[in-house]
Design brief:
heterodimer; A: 240 residues; mainly beta; 15-stranded mixed sheet; 3% helix; B: mainly beta; 1 helix; 15 strands; 5% helix; 60% strand
């Protein structure tokens, strides 16, 4: 076979004191590692809480984690919201999209040199953004000036429209994490959008991600502490 | 109807050409039936023959079984082949694609109202293609225009947008048993047709059995004596 596969399910649960542990959604994902080193991510994310979101993602990256293309389809508030195709090449990002808000839109965005990440809003996609952190530098904070995303809406419930922001990433260190799917050696990151006009050192990076401490960067757990938690409940790995 | 109903499953691809049975690929799929009656399917297909094919597709229908949008990504022999987005408006089908062979291409095709068949080349996609273009009565045939991402039988090229004349025959209801279970199905036959010849004389070699429900799920399909595709796992949420 020309690729190996990791499949799994991530549950979305509440971390609020009033209903801690309540399941509020889930994500089925399939990651494939291809013979040429490229990777493809497929994620079906269902948020059961309002506005009720059904989101499909299919993203691919090259062997050095450079963005290749991404498909996004969003259904929210019980109706079709939009579908879009993103393509990244050289110093250009392209988006062909159709949304119920904007209609048919074509977008082009010139990219600067330096790391570019894509926030597709799947939980497995969140860990792929952490590959932009240069782990050889050890714990600390680094910034990614070009975080592209199909929407700035936290639940990924709008768009897709090509949008740009900046991302701060803090590498906390290596930790062992226990979730319903098992025990995993992880890299612990804290991350969040930040205002480029302010210092990264004081930015509030309030989203914690624990991803596998191997070459695959698979999200094992993530959370906005006290609000929402996402944890791996099923895991099937053919890469070993 | 609940807000969402999800089915996930797996099909196996079997070859019988040399007298014995050989697995030559498979397909993981999921369906979402939304409360308004619209449907989304995702398929991850793998073919391992002389040419290996990895094909991902996402395909959506409205509550009248008319395609609304689709996406496709194809790798062959471990190399990127192409990726593209389809949008079906009231009057026009468009495909924005980037392929290793043709570069960045946009295709446009006029379409009329109502349901029409679109071939994504997934087996679960074939089922929706047939359901969208089939006649209602048993033992009858209909001719239609099929939109497809490629004429390559393995779906190993493109994605592009092509329109071809196509014929579908509804054979009738049958109960079919496959490794995933026993299903009430509707049996269809289909194939390309030459518009210069009579539809009733066209040789339809592709047989397909679809569940008799809102999902129109592919339970089995086959080119008799050559290839068979059958449901081996089904999980119903």
């Amino acid at each position: 076979m020309d690729y190996s596969t990791i499949r799994g399910t991530i549950n979305y649960v509440s971390d609020e004191d009033s209903d801690k542990g309540r399941k509020r959604g889930y994500e089925y994902f399939t990651l494939t590692l291809h013979k040429d080193g490229g990777r493809v991510q497929r994620a079906l994310s269902i948020i059961e809480d309002q506005p009720i979101v059904v989101r499909d993602i299919l993203e691919s990256v090259s062997k050095d984690w450079h963005l290749q293309d991404c498909y996004v389809r969003i259904h929210s508030k019980k109706q079709f919201t939009g579908t879009g195709w993103f393509r990244f090449h050289n110093n250009l990002a392209e988006c062909e999209t159709f949304t119920t808000t904007e209609g048919r839109v074509s977008q082009y965005m010139t990219l600067e040199s330096g790391p570019v990440v894509f926030c597709n809003h799947s939980i497995v996609g969140d860990a792929w953004m952490m590959t932009a952190y240069d782990i050889s530098q050890g714990p600390g904070r680094q910034k990614v000036e070009q975080m592209l995303t199909p929407t700035l809406n936290k639940q990924g419930a709008e768009g897709p429209i090509l949008t740009r922001s900046a991302l701060g990433i803090e590498f906390v260190g290596k930790e062992t994490i226990k979730v319903p799917a098992g025990i995993f050696q992880c890299l612990h990151f804290k991350t969040g959008r930040y205002d480029r006009n302010h210092a990264l050192a004081t930015a509030s990076l309030n989203y914690d991600i624990w991803c596998t401490a191997d070459s695959h960067y698979v999200t094992i757990m993530s959370m906005y502490a006290g609000k929402r938690r996402y944890e791996m409940v099923q895991w099937q790995d053919s890469t070993e | 109807m609940t807000e969402r109903s999800i089915k996930r499953g797996k099909l196996v691809y079997l070859n019988f050409s040399n007298g014995d049975m050989k697995v030559f690929g498979g397909e993981h799929f999921s369906f979402t039936l939304l409360s308004g009656g619209s449907l989304i399917q995702r398929a991850q297909c793998h073919i391992a023959e002389s040419l290996t094919v990895e094909r991902d597709s996402v395909f959506a229908l409205d509550n009248n079984f008319r395609p609304t949008d689709a996406y496709m990504r194809i790798e062959t022999n471990g190399s990127f082949t192409g990726t593209g987005l389809y949008h079906f408006s009231e009057r026009e089908a468009t495909c924005d694609a980037f392929t290793a062979r043709d570069g960045r291409v946009t295709y446009r095709q006029s379409i009329g109202p109502g349901a029409f068949p679109f071939c994504s080349h997934a087996i679960v996609g074939d089922a929706w293609m047939i359901a969208a273009g089939a006649p209602d009565k048993d033992n009858t045939r209909s001719a239609t225009t099929l939109l497809t991402s490629t004429l390559n039988k393995q779906g190993a090229a493109g994605p592009a947008l092509l329109a071809i004349p196509y014929g579908i025959e509804r054979v009738g209801e049958e109960i079919i048993t496959v490794p995933a279970g026993t299903f009430e199905t509707i049996h269809y036959k289909c194939g390309t047709v030459d518009m210069n010849h009579q539809l009733d004389k066209a040789d339809f070699q592709y047989n397909m059995w679809l569940t008799k429900d809102d999902f129109c799920l592919a339970v089995k399909s086959e080119y008799p004596g050559r290839n068979r595709f059958e449901l081996i796992e089904l999980e119903d949420n």
